[in-house]
TrEMBL record:
This is Acyl carrier protein. One of its GO terms (molecular function) is acyl carrier activity. SUPFAM superfamilies: ACP-like. It comes from Streptomyces finlayi. One of its GO terms (cellular component) is membrane. Keywords: Cytoplasm, Fatty acid biosynthesis, Fatty acid metabolism, Lipid biosynthesis, Lipid metabolism, Phosphopantetheine, Phosphoprotein. Carrier of the growing fatty acid chain in fatty acid biosynthesis. 4'-phosphopantetheine is transferred from CoA to a specific serine of apo-ACP by AcpS. This modification is essential for activity because fatty acids are bound in thioester linkage to the sulfhydryl of the prosthetic group.
């Protein structure tokens, strides 16, 4: 049965819940185009927490170069989709 929900949508929902819980972000702030520093005001410790979330989702470490290249929530969602996060339902 198809519900019309993509894996990216499902990942966004899970990441949003974690960002709300762990970093105290508001649901309306958590959109793919939101930039971590400029829009959300995340600091380096928040980014470490975000990397921990990503590593938990994929089951593997995120390379430093990859982590530094991510600027938006959409970048994180794309990374998680490309690395198979959420494929085991």
């Amino acid at each position: 049965m198809t519900t019309g929900t993509t894996s990216a949508d499902a990942i966004l929902v899970r990441v949003a819940a974690m960002l709300e819980d762990k970093l105290g972000l508001l649901p309306e702030e958590i959109v793919p185009e939101a930039r971590f520093t400029n829009d959300l005001g995340l600091d380096s410790l928040d980014m470490v927490e975000l990397l921990t979330i990503m590593e938990a989702e994929t089951g593997s470490p995120v390379e430093d170069d990859t982590a530094h290249a991510m600027n938006t929530i959409g970048d994180v969602i794309t990374y998680l989709v490309e690395h198979g996060a959420g494929e085991t339902e």
